[in-house]
Target: ABC transporter B family member 8
Amino acid sequence: MTSDLAKGSAAIASIFAIMDRKSSIPDSYTAGDGGIKLEKITGGIQMKRVDFAYPGRPEMLVLRDFCLEVKEGTSIGLVGKSGCGKSTVIALIQRFYDVDCGSVKVDGVDIRLLDINWYRKHTALVSQEPVIYSGSIRENIMFGKLDASETEVLDAARAANAHEFISSLKNGYDTECGERGVQLSGGQKQRIAIARAIIRNPNILLLDEATSALDVQSEQLVQEALDNIMVGRTTVVVAHRLNTVKNLDSIAVVMDGKVIECGNYSQLKNKRGVFFNLTKFQ
Model:
C-alpha cells in the first residue's frame, strides 16, 4: 500500500512538473497581444543561415548555416540520410522550436513576430504516424476545423480518397476509431489524417514521411490524395522513398545539417552527385 502511494505521488509530481513548465514560445491566448496577424498569407518560406540544436543536446548542432527558400504555391522535397535534419526543418517551420541563429520567415516576416496560434491555423501537418483520437471518424476529421459543416467533412474525405471506405463501414462517419485508431488500418488512418489537414484549407502543407509506413496499395491511394491537396499550396515534403518526390517542383538534398544540392528530379539525377547516388541505392 505504501509503495503504491509512493508511485502515485511520483507520477502526480511529474505531471504537475510538465503542467508548470513555462514554454519559451509564448501562447498568444495567455500572452495577450501575441504578435502580428497578416492580412493575407501566401506561404512563401525563407530559412536563412539557420543554426539549431535541440535544447536537450545544446552541444550538437542539427542544422548549421542552413538556407532554404520555397516560393509560394510550390512544392519542395527534403531528402537525405536519417538524422541529417529533415524533420527538424518541419518542426522549425511550425515553430515548435526557435532557431539559435538565423531566421525562418513566411512571406518575408520572421515567424517569431507572428501570432503563433493564428500562424498555425494556416499550416497543416501529415506525419508518418498519424494521430487518431478515440471518437468517431467525423470527430477526427473535424479536429482540423471544429465548426466545419457536414458538407465540408464529406468534401475533405472525398479529396483524401477516404469517403468510399468510410461509407462502406456499418456506421459510416459515426464509426468509432478506437484508442489511437486501433479499429482502422494504417492506410485508413493516414487518409483520415489527410482529410483533417484538407478541412483546414492550409496555405502551408507539411508532409513528414506521410507514405513510408504503408503497403504499396495503400501508398498509391494516399499519394493520390496528397497530390490532390498539394495543388496551389506551399508544400514541404520529407521523404526517404525518392519516387514520392519525382513530381515536385524542386528537391533539396540535406547532409550534415546543410543543403548541398538543389534542383528538380531530372536536374539532380543528371548532375550525378549525392542525389544520383541515393537513387542508385533505391
